[in-house]
Each structure stands twice: as structure tokens, then as C-alpha cells.
Amino acid sequence: MRFSQVGLSALALAGLAGSAFGGLTFSFADPAGNGQLTNTGGVLSYASSTVLAFNIDGSTEPAPFSVSFVNAGLELSLTLSNATSNFGITTAQISGTFRVFNRDINGGVGAAATILEAVAPSGAFVSIGAAGTVNTDFDFFGLVLTAGAQLQNLLQPGRFIAPPFDSVFTVTDIAPLPLSVVNGTISDFAANASFSGTANVVPTPGSVALLALGGFAVSRRRR
Fold this sequence. Notes:
Blueprint: H1 2-20, E1 22-28, E2 37-40, E3 43-46, E4 52-58, E5 65-86, E6 89-102, E7 114-120, E8 124-128, E9 131-137, H2 138-141, E10 144-147, H3 149-152, E11 159-175, E12 181-182, E13 185-186, E14 189-203, H4 205-221
Antiparallel strand pairs: 1-4, 1-14, 2-3, 2-14, 3-5, 4-5, 5-6, 6-7, 6-8, 7-10, 8-9, 9-11, 11-14, 12-13
Helix pairs in contact: 1-4
């Protein structure tokens, strides 16, 4: 009987812990207009005045949610380096940062307005003709995503985003073509872009300890 009580406690803890771990997906569609994404002198930037609908799907969270920030914006600065171009395929390494913000809060300025921040130590730009991707992730490139106040407020207390992280900007309507590379630098261009990304969500260590105590309490009540 004692063994079965311990087993019940372990099962209860496993169930609580399983429900405590979830994940988020992020996205925005290519907005109206052209040329919001620009490469100038080997630095990718995004027109921060462009209005985006930034979507967050937290349907696997303990308290599921789905939110669209319909007045969001993007600040982006990614350096393109070591570029090559062969047979119409242009590639480059990337590094830099980006920040998604809610301009309904302080006009989008400051920590209170931040939805999501990213530091990308490395990544890859690939284009084939007028289309391409800007890709970076945690496992291979070391991407780090940080929840801003706007995102953290959506999560239950004691929860935070954690690896693995990934982000992909899908690039379209690159112009002018063809792209050229001189001394590892891609020629200037403008393009459109959409975005998708993911992050894990985990409880803080303190929350895990509380789960363990909850499992122990279950075993005590059943004795």
C-alpha cells in the first residue's frame, strides 16, 4: 500500500508538471505596401512606422490564450556579412537584434511597450531570385528571445519563455534584381517580409518546487 501511495504521488506530480510546460508561436503577415524591409550597405532594417498585426498563440498554456496586437511595430537591425552569390542564389551570415513593440503603449517606446526582443548572434540569409528567408534559431545559431512586458503580462505568474527558440522572416518581392556581391557585401535592395517564430514556456524553479510539494501533499492525503 505504501508503494502505491508513492506511485500515486509521482503520477500526480507528473501530471502537474506536464501541464506546466507549454509553448508559444509568434507571427505577422506581410502588411500592405511595399519595401518595408531594406538592405543598405549590408545592414537589414525594417520601417518601424509600418503597422503590423503581431499574433501570439498560447493555446498549449495552462490558461490558453490567443492574442493579436493589431497596432504593433518592428525594429530590426541585422548585419549581412560574408555574402556569396552563385547561379542566382545569394547567401550571407546575419547577426543583430530585433524588437516587436505595441505602439498603443507609450507610442511603442520603452520596456513597457515591448512585446518580444531577440538577440541573434548568428543566422542565415538565403535568396533565390525575388524570394528568400532570414533564419535563426537557438540550437544552431544561438538565438535568444526575451519576453517584453506586453508578452509577460499574458503568461501566468511564475512562467517565462525559454529555449528552444526560432525565428524566420520570409522575404518576398526583392528588388532590384539581380542581387550582386562585392567584397562580401550584398547590393542594396528593398523587400517585403512576414514572420514566424516559436518559444518554449516553463515554470520558474520556485514553481517546480511548488509542484513537488503538491505531489507530496497528494501522497500525504491518501495515507
